[in-house]
Amino acid sequence: MQNNKVQVNSEIGKLKRVITHRPDDGIGRISPKHAEELLFDDIVHLPKMQEEHDVFTRILKSFLGEEHVLEVSQLLLESLDYNQEKKEFLIQKIANYEELPDRDIQLLLSLPNTELRDVLITGYCISKDVILFDPIPNFIFTRDIAVTVNDHVIITRAAKEARHRENFLTRFIFWTHPYFEYLHQEDKVINLNDINAFPPSKKGEHVSIEGGDVMTIHENYLLVGCSERTTEYAIHLLKEALFEKGVIENVVQINIPSARSCMHIDTLFTQVDVNDIVAYKPFIVDGNASSVVVHRKGKSPQNYNSVKDFFVAEINPNINFILSGNGQSPYQEREQWTDGCNLVTIKPGVAITYDRNPRTEQAFQLAGYQTIHAYDFIKGLENGTIDPQKVEKTIINIPSGELSRARGGSHCMTCPIERELL
């Protein structure tokens, strides 16, 4: 990979480089008994899920170029190939965490890197036909593993044990892969696992922040959700680290209910254009059960009753909220649940979403967007009637019968590491 640049100062600048993960074989081994433990609400049909994800990445590659849609398992393999000493350290860390016996540690050390990579992700060793540990099915949600804030990277820390191995692998990639070496040389990595060395807060809170709760919406503003997965204590520690390094001027804490239906702030809103945000009306516009606190270095915090009030006052007085389910019950509740508010923006005014939220799609059309299904978009690419570089004000709907059952949308399935600066 050339031009090893990490830079994100918005949610909507033209996407230039992103990390994704194709649903892997570990997802196909989730049993109904263990689905909840592994943070899945249901078991999914893996071949169909992979087919849907392939459509998703096909759309991304048409805009970014194939070489700029990075597969996390390939990054892991390249990292394993790059440094033997660090590879052995990773194996020992995971072995200690998973409480593996010595024979399994020796097995891991003996595997070729391609198989080792697969075992570390799926938990299953195909050559020995043995399961060493649980899969990490939520690895498809690469948004949660790390966040780029301006020219720095935050290595996050998951709240649930089912995701802790993802964290080991993410740290290893960002620590070892040559693409990210310069970040360490220039001290541009904030590792929340180091911050976690601090004792629990007075409330007993530990450090947990997941990337779905973190949005760089402006070079001077970082939004962080205080939610089911992200603790207030973690936000405090992150804020202090960011201010000390001069990475950002404002850290905005968005308080939302601690509930499965809104586990991260990106389940409640995402930005799709300079003036447009798709949002769940009760929490984001009305402010029911949510609030906003803006932290500024050396100043007293400022409070707002809703995300809408904050955006209008500090970011953009012309902001427009496009409402999930067109702002009507019970459709807004249904379509918020199926990630109608969870979109990844490819460039200002062009975003990807699921194809199962018709009332939200209608709301986009009323706001002046055209909508197109991914299959029709791909057909247009193939016959030359669609040029991705000329697409404007468009929402692309991807198939989502299986993907949506994993409880995460297109925003969740992307970890942007470079966007064009706004």
Would you kindly provide a brief summary of this structure?
This protein is an alpha/beta fold and 422 residues long. The protein has a domain at 15-138 and 161-180 and 259-294 and 309-419: L-arginine/glycine Amidinotransferase, Chain A (5-stranded Propeller), CATH 3.75.10. It is built from 15 helices and 20 strands.
What does this structure look like?
By secondary structure, the chain is α/β, with parallel strands linked by helices. The protein has a domain at 15-138 and 161-180 and 259-294 and 309-419: L-arginine/glycine Amidinotransferase, Chain A, CATH 3.75.10. Helix content is 34%, strand content 20%. It is built from 15 helices and 20 strands. The chain has helices at residues 32-35, 46-64, 72-82, 84-98, 102-110, 113-122, 164-176, 181-185, 192-195, 232-245, 281-285, 307-315, 331-337, 358-366, 374-383; strands at residues 15-20, 69-71, 124-125, 130-131, 146-149, 152-155, 189-191, 214-218, 221-226, 250-255, 269-273, 276-279, 291-296, 302-304, 320-323, 344-347, 350-354, 370-373, 394-398, 415-419. The strands form 6 sheets. Strands 8-9-10-13-14 form a 5-stranded mixed beta sheet, with helices on both faces. Helix 3 (72-82) crosses helix 7 (164-176). The chain is globular and about 60 Å long. The model has no long low-confidence stretch (mean pLDDT 94).
